[in-house]
Each structure stands twice: as structure tokens, then as C-alpha cells.
Amino acid sequence: MGTEYAPARAMAPTKLAYFDDMWALRSTATVVSLVQDGGRRAVVLHSTVFYPQGGGQPADTGVISSGGARFLVEDVRMKDGVVFHYGRFEDVGDGCNSEFSEGQSVNLEVDAERRNLNSRLHSAGHLLDICISNIGLSHVEPGKGHHFPDGPFVEYKGGIPPDQLQDKKNKLEKEANELISKGAKVLACILPYEEATQLCGGALPSYISKGSTPRIVKFGDHPGGPCGGTHVADISNINNIKVTNIRVKKGLIKVSYNVSP
After folding, report:
1. CB neighbours of 32 closer than 8 A, spacing ≥ 6?
2. Fewer Cβ close by (within 10 Å): the C or N end of the chain?
3. Is the overall model pTM greater than 0.90, yes or no?
4. Is residue 35 a contact partner of residue 213, using CB atoms and an 8 Å limit?
5. What pLDDT is stored for residue 131 in this prediction?
6. Distances in whole angstroms, Cα of residue 190 to Cα of each of 20, 67, 148, 226
7. Residue 177: left (phi > 0), alpha (psi -120 to 50), or beta?
8. What local confidence, expressed as pLDDT, does residue 156 receive?
9. What does the pLDDT read at residue 60?
10. Which residues of the chain fall short of a pLDDT of 70?
11. Own/partner pairs, 21-28, CB within 8 angstroms, 24+ separation
């Protein structure tokens, strides 16, 4: 079948099925288009459980299949609301590739091990946001988060006196693991701006537009925060956090961390 060249702007936004259930790893969807994008093949679906890279979290990988055709998903990105599943069709033998056609129903399966690790790392980063206030650093402002397996970290605007860095590192790790041991359910929902503000302790970041309907992730009774990523079902599923380093440079506190296998 010939490859389609439909640009993202010509397609309706992809339904993000992981918003409805971020622990679902399988689903079915309808093929909207096959795309050749900058030398890479991509499949566009009407709906997806695959998480596209963004918000400091890596993309999911996995398989999209139907009949004899299998598309190995190696990367996922979202452009203008449309999710592109990048990868390649598996060779079915004799050098032939069986492909999808528009309107075809396909099965989606996300790599469970990768998703689980990415969710644990992302949740761990959010948990550190909660803990940073609990150890006497409520004056700092959350910044960038990098929840990738190769060196995850969270940043905050503010400072810590050099002679307190080791103490804060130890207290932060201890506080995080105490909360993990207690456990608490993780809630994710899309809310009107006013309700979201209340759930987030009375204020939302300035990048959230008034009148919008942000997705809020909340850990137990702690204030929530806007987030489009995937998370664990319960804080206890993080298992364990190791704070590997705290560094202060140019008004930024960088907290490097990791989670146990």
C-alpha cells in the first residue's frame, strides 16, 4: 500500500486514551493515516494508549498489530494535538512487509516494563516536590523535571546554604521513603480551572491559562499539580527513592534521584 503524506494540521487531534486510564497497556484503535515524516515512518490513530514524549517523560514503545501486520513502535511524539507513532513494519518473510490501511482496526500493546519504570520515575519526581516543602524548603519554586532513566532530576528556583546541602539531601530522601512506605492513592483528572486551582492548594502555575481545563495529578491528601504524564496507581508502587545529589548553581537547586529496580 502507498504511503500517505497527510500533515498533522489536516488531521483531528488524537484521543489520549491514557488520560481515561493511565494503567491500561492494551487497546484497539482505528488507523487514520500512514505518514512519512522526515525519513521516518509513522502511524496515526484516532486514539492511543501510547504516551508521547513530553513533560519530562520518555515516550512509550511497543507494538501495533492487525492480522499479519505488526508495526514496532520505537518512538511517539505529539504535534498539534496529533500523536505520531514512529517505527517500522516487521518483515513477515520473503522480504515482504504487510502494512495497515486507513480505517483498519488495530491492536495496541505498550511495553509494560518501560512504562512502569517511566511512571515510577515521574511519580518519584512529583513526590520530591511534595517532600521539598516538608523539610523546610517551602520557599523554593518547582521548575524543570527530567524523569528519564538516564539521570532523572527535578529543579527548583531558590537556594540552600552550602553547609545544609548534605542534611537536606538526607532529610529529603528519608521523607520521600516514609511517604512511600505509608502509601496513598494517585488521582488524575481533567478539571475546570477553578476546581483545579482548589485541588492544587489555591494556585496554578502561570503557564496554565485561565478558563482552561487542566489535567491534575494528586497524591493522596497532598496538593495536586498539573501534569499530562503517566503515574503509579499508589505512591507505594514507587518502591524506593534514592536522592543521589543536591547541587545549587545560579539560583537553581538540582535534585538528582533514582528509584530502586
Report:
1. 11, 12, 14, 44, 45, 46, 102
2. C
3. yes
4. no
5. 95
6. 10, 35, 25, 9
7. alpha
8. 95
9. 98
10. 1-9, 92-97
11. 21/49, 22/119, 22/188, 22/230, 22/231, 23/233, 24/49, 25/49, 25/62, 25/109, 25/110, 25/112, 25/115, 26/107, 26/108, 26/109, 26/110, 27/107, 27/108, 28/105, 28/106, 28/107, 28/108
Residue 4: the pLDDT is 44
Q: How many residues in the chain?
A: 261
pLDDT of residue 8: 45
